[in-house]
């Protein structure tokens, strides 16, 4: 198709070739291929240099194609998503500063808003009794040394088995499953310190426990120490701040599962499988052990020196998406200043940052902030990973809802074969 003015559309918004390519996620030459195939119309730009394209027509093609090709510069697969934006060392959820959300709203409120766009003050998620019972029985059958992520994975499977409507991928059905799955995961974890499930649930229902908020229910699974309001505020804020963070490895796995129209429980299982890697969700455990050693030795200097001497990376520092301090860490550090029992761990964390800064310009990330909470409140080293997994479940569901609306199985990269060329003799 040649460049001709389109009758009646001269006043419509026009895009340059580069802008159309970015919106479609393709190379500029591919845009012209769409024109030649009749999939797009173009108009010669003023002065005869290049072409312009109708913005709505380009968006319609983007929705139909459901694909993003590698960009000429980076070569990475790019996904259109309206969930998270990380820009200029700031972190936004649907355009709203995530650190402000964490200060003002509970995890359940933010999760509900992230899924539906509706803020419901005081919303609480509840686990169906039969689903919770099945998840607890399944978790209880695991060996005593099982980790929290092991327990969460089997709890998801048990919850899926009790939901006969899990294959309904309508938004209403998916969200119904999500609202029951998240508290089921928390309730399936054993109560810390060997207390009974009934005792743990009674704590969660106590008036001083914020009427059974998810943060309060999770607290009793992380530590046997009583929770005060400032410490609970830190945990709730951490849950909000970890809810999503662009296309992390676990989120990509969740979207691949959703692209195959796997049900939401399978999507969460896919995310949990990746989360356990030491370079992802388990990174907070390394920060916990390092910080605990610094507190025990009374100084972070020899601990940092030991890491550097042995060629190990100092955990809890640096993030590939931020040039400066992780804004999530900054928010949690501020809230931790109101937790009296966190003073020692907080001072040790700041000493870790200051000591390492003599060798490399690294800033604190959220793993170090989670370590301050877990060390100060007598939690196990894997507590941060548990918080991460519970929180990110809501983010995986949000991404699944986006992916269910895309063309199925669009995430299908091509392999570059490097083996011997055929024909080869049969072994």
Short summary:
The protein is mainly alpha-helical. It has helices at 17-24, 28-36, 55-65, 98-104, 107-116, 129-140, 148-161, 171-188, 197-205, 214-222, 229-241, 249-259, 264-275, 283-297, 301-309, 327-336, 343-356, 366-376, 383-404; strands at 14-16, 42-44, 51-54, 84-87, 90-93, 96-97.
How are the elements arranged and paired?
Blueprint: E1 14-16, H1 17-24, H2 28-36, E2 42-44, E3 51-54, H3 55-65, E4 84-87, E5 90-93, E6 96-97, H4 98-104, H5 107-116, H6 129-140, H7 148-161, H8 171-188, H9 197-205, H10 214-222, H11 229-241, H12 249-259, H13 264-275, H14 283-297, H15 301-309, H16 327-336, H17 343-356, H18 366-376, H19 383-404
Helix pairs in contact: 1-2, 4-11, 5-11, 5-19, 6-7, 6-8, 7-8, 7-13, 8-19, 9-10, 10-11, 11-16, 11-19, 12-13, 12-19, 13-19, 14-15, 14-17, 14-18, 16-18, 17-18
């Amino acid at each position: 198709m040649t460049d001709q003015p389109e009758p009646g559309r001269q006043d419509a918004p026009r895009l340059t070739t580069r802008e159309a390519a970015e919106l479609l996620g393709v190379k500029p030459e591919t845009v012209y291929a769409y024109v030649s195939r009749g999939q797009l119309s173009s108009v010669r730009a003023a002065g005869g240099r290049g072409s312009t394209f109708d913005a709505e027509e380009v968006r319609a093609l983007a929705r139909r194609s459901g694909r993003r090709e590698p960009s000429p510069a980076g070569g990475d697969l790019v996904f259109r998503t309206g969930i998270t934006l990380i820009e200029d060392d700031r972190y936004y959820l649907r355009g709203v500063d995530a650190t402000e959300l964490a200060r003002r709203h509970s995890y359940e409120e933010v999760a509900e808003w992230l899924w539906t766009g509706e803020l419901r003050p005081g919303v609480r998620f509840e686990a169906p009794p039969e689903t919770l019972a099945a998840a607890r029985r399944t978790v209880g059958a695991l060996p005593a040394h099982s980790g929290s992520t092991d327990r969460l994975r089997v709890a998801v499977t048990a919850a899926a088995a009790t939901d006969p409507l899990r294959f309904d991928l309508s938004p209403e059905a998916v969200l119904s499953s999500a609202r029951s799955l998240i508290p089921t995961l928390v309730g399936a974890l054993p109560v810390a310190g060997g207390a009974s499930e009934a005792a743990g649930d009674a704590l969660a229902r106590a008036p001083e426990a914020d009427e059974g908020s998810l943060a309060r229910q999770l607290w009793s699974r992380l530590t046997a120490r009583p929770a005060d309001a400032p410490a609970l505020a830190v945990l709730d804020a951490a849950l909000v701040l970890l809810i999503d963070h662009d296309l992390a490895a676990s989120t990509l796995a969740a979207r691949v599962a959703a692209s195959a129209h796997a049900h939401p429980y399978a999507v969460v299982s896919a995310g949990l499988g990746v989360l356990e890697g030491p370079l992802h969700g388990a990174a907070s455990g390394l920060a916990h052990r390092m910080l605990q050693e610094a507190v025990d030795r009374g100084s972070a200097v020899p601990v940092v020196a030991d890491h550097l001497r042995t060629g190990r990376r100092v955990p809890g520092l640096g993030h590939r998406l931020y040039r400066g301090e992780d804004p999530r860490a900054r928010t949690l550090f501020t809230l931790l200043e109101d937790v009296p029992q966190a003073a020692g761990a907080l001072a040790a964390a700041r000493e870790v940052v200051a000591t390492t800064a003599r060798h490399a310009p690294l800033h604190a990330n959220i793993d170090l902030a989670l370590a301050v909470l877990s060390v100060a409140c007598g939690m196990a080293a894997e507590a941060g990973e548990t918080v991460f997994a519970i929180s990110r479940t809501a983010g995986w569901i949000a991404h699944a809802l986006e992916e269910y609306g895309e063309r199925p199985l669009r995430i299908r990269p091509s392999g570059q074969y490097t083996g011997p060329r055929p024909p080869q003799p049969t072994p």
